[in-house]
Design goal:
Mean pLDDT: 91
Structural class: alpha+beta
Largest sheet: 2 strands, parallel
Strand order of the largest sheet: 1-4
Shape: elongated
Low-confidence stretches: none
Radius of gyration: 20 Å
Number of helices: 3
């Protein structure tokens, strides 16, 4: 993103929703937003990738300022990973976790 690339064509921000892209110390910036700004200045494109886009990006799509491309199928028709919903209000917890909501089901997994 900060590399001195000549004739920049595209910046790819994978998992654009990730909060770790936000720099917390000075100078403060959001790498996703910085990528969009640099691409605009360079006349390049930005590809924001995410299975769970940020609310900001979804807003840009709905406002017509960003185009949405969807991949409705997983590569190689791979199945989705198994998911278990655990009610943290009633699930058995690991006693050593203290106030952290670490359940026995999560510990086994």
């Amino acid at each position: 993103m900060f590399a001195p690339v000549q004739r920049l064509g595209c910046i790819v921000v994978d998992e654009e929703h990730e909060s770790s892209y936000k720099q917390g110390t000075a100078p403060r910036y959001n790498a996703r937003d910085a990528a969009v700004t640099r691409a605009r200045l360079e006349g390049a494109r930005v590809l924001l990738g995410s299975a769970t886009p940020s609310l900001e990006t979804l807003h840009e799509v709905r406002a017509g300022r960003t185009r949405l491309f969807e991949l409705p199928e997983r590569i190689g028709a791979r199945p989705l990973p198994p998911v278990a919903v655990v009610d943290l209000r009633t699930a058995a917890r690991v006693p050593q976790a203290g106030p952290i909501p670490w359940t026995e089901a999560l510990d086994r997994a």
